[in-house]
Automatic annotation (TrEMBL):
Name the record gives this protein: Glutathione reductase
Domain spans labelled FAD/NAD(P)-binding: 5-317
One of the GO BP terms on file: glutathione metabolic process
Entry note: cofactor: Binds 1 FAD per subunit.
Domain of life of the source: Bacteria
Protein family according to the UniProt entry: Belongs to the class-I pyridine nucleotide-disulfide oxidoreductase family.
Chain residues that bind FAD: K51, D302
EC number: 1.8.1.7
Spans through the membrane: none
Boundaries of every Pyridine nucleotide-disulphide oxidoreductase dimerisation domain copy: 337-444
Length: 451
């Protein structure tokens, strides 16, 4: 049977674009459909605009520090309009880059929504049908709104980059990556931020000591964080949003942002009709080669809800191409993925938290928390944390957790050592780079506790 294409990719985000490009470079005839902007969540509504906003939000702190260092520095007003225009011009440029990557590699693109008609056929929103030997689902995810009365008055991270003006006050609901990052960003930009999280501590799943320090620092920076608190209902009230909360309060905010998780974009795709198995959250179920229950259909990235991170989606896309087009079956390895949360201060983490490691066997914990030189001189109260979780039997470093300015940069490098199976003694043998914050990671001699 002959097909129009060797591969049809649905979704032009990080995973889909990488898979399409690499498959085309391997000699496959490839097409890709994207209904929105190329680049997907990471480029258009996630990592990239978020990080630019992180940079923007850090300037007031830099100016304060500059004063403490003897500069006659003053911060003026932040012009959201000017920043937003520049931000969107940059996102337009990046969209062009993504389109060019595809075009230059001979991938045919369709600016259309696509759904599955059968195991080898995609139907586009203009009614046309395309056949392919393999189909790759890479539709990503979308924010979920909680079922709360008046939730439609709130925004999500999708809209935050498009606000007409920055609100004076904002409530952020949630305690995950997005909620915490935006609480810090908006606080830095001068918005009075309140954050409600239903659990006992933000950043569930991460090392407890590390998340505790991030929470403490966020509060110290002026974020009004309420734990064990959820929204009961919301209503419009004189141009503001009135929010009734489970802690018995009723407060008014200019904006409410939900960062209450994301759901895979699988609705209305014709997946169930075809027998593509989905999980409880609507995620496409795949094996270690990213193959779905229908052999010609594969899926990568957030649509599979495995580990919703851009570099992981890219890895999954490349492993898929290696498996299907290069005859080299390559499972995707999701172990020891370093990651950073761009709160202020940042958290960088790789491997097991102390709590996870403790459940697996005897461990030693090495940790130090201190005021870094730069911030201390500037009179800031900020503390940082460097922490290693070590297996008492094998001496391997099972987890590394850093809360500090620049922790994202640091954990990328520490991640290599942890990934290589470095022992505590390997860390110890490495000479410190002085004076830095990260030198503490190789100078901790005695465990603070064993478990
Ligand atoms: P998360 O799943 O990380 O967090 C969702 C948060 O919302 C949790 O705190 C959750 O609480 C809470 N929540 C869920 N439902 C409700 C509800 N009905 N009412 C109140 N609270 C609720 O999702 P995010 O949206 O923050 O991020 C999605 C994913 O995007 C992340 O998992 C991450 O993989 C990725 N991401 C990565 C970034 C990075 O690498 N720096 C940055 C941003 C996103 P509970 O803990 O109790 O379940």
């Amino acid at each position: 049977m002959s097909f129009d294409y060797d591969l049809f990719v649905i979704g032009g985000g990080s995973g889909g674009v990488r898979a399409a490009r690499v498959a085309a470079q391997a000699g496959a005839k490839v097409a890709l459909a994207e209904e929105d902007r190329y680049g997907g969540t990471c480029v258009q509504r996630g990592c990239v605009p978020k990080k630019l906003m992180v940079f923007a939000s850090e300037y007031p702190g830099h100016v304060e520090d500059a004063k403490a260092y003897g500069w006659d520095a003053q911060i003026g007003d932040f012009c959201w309009d000017a920043f937003r225009s520049k931000l969107h011009a940059e996102l337009d440029r990046l969209e062009g880059v993504y389109r060019n990557i595809l075009g230059n590699n001979g991938v045919e693109t369709f600016d259309a929504r696509a759904r599955l008609a059968d195991a080898h056929t995609v139907e586009l929103s203009d009614g046309s049908r395309k056949t392919a030997k393999h189909i790759l689902l890479a539709m990503g995810g979308w924010p979920v709104l909680p079922e709360i009365k008046g939730a439609d008055l709130g925004i999500t991270s999708n809209e935050v980059f498009h606000l007409d003006e920055l609100p004076e006050t904002m409530l952020i609901l949630g305690g995950g990556y997005i909620a915490c990052e935006f609480a810090c960003i908006l606080n830095g930009l001068g918005v009075k931020v309140t954050q409600y999280y239903r659990g006992a501590q933000i950043l569930r799943g991460f090392d407890e000591e590390a998340r505790g320090l991030v929470a403490e620092e966020m509060q110290q920076n002026g974020i009004d964080l309420h734990l064990g608190t959820n929204i009961l209902e919301m209503a419009e009230d004189g141009g503001k949003i009135r929010v009734k909360a489970t802690n018995g309060t009723e407060r008014h905010f200019d904006k409410v942002m939900f960062a209450t998780g994301r759901r895979p974009n699988t609705a209305g795709m014709g997946l169930e009709d075809l027998g593509v198995k989905l999980g409880r959250n609507g995620e496409v179920l795949v094996d270690e080669y990213s193959q779905t229950s229908i052999p010609s259909i594969y899926a990568v990235g957030d649509v599979t809800d495995r580990m919703n991170l851009t570099p992981v989606a890219i890895r999954e896309g490349m492993a898929f191409v290696e498996t299907v087009f290069n005859g080299n079956p390559t499972p995707v390895d999701h172990a020891l993925v370093p990651t950073a949360i761009f709160t202020q201060p940042e958290m960088g983490t790789v491997g097991l938290s102390e709590e996870e490691a403790r459940d697996q066997g005897p461990i030693e914990v090495y940790a130090t928390s201190f005021k870094p030189m730069r911030e201390s001189f500037a009179g800031r109260a900020q503390r940082v944390l460097m922490k290693l979780v070590v297996c008492a039997d094998t001496r391997r470093v099972l987890g590394c957790h850093i809360v500090a300015p620049g922790a994202g940069e640091m954990i990328q490098l520490a991640g290599i050592a942890v990934r290589m199976g470095a022992t505590k003694e390997d860390f110890d043998r490495t000479v410190a780079v002085h004076p830095t914050m990260s030198e503490e990671i190789v100078t901790m001699r005695e465990p603070v506790r064993t478990a």
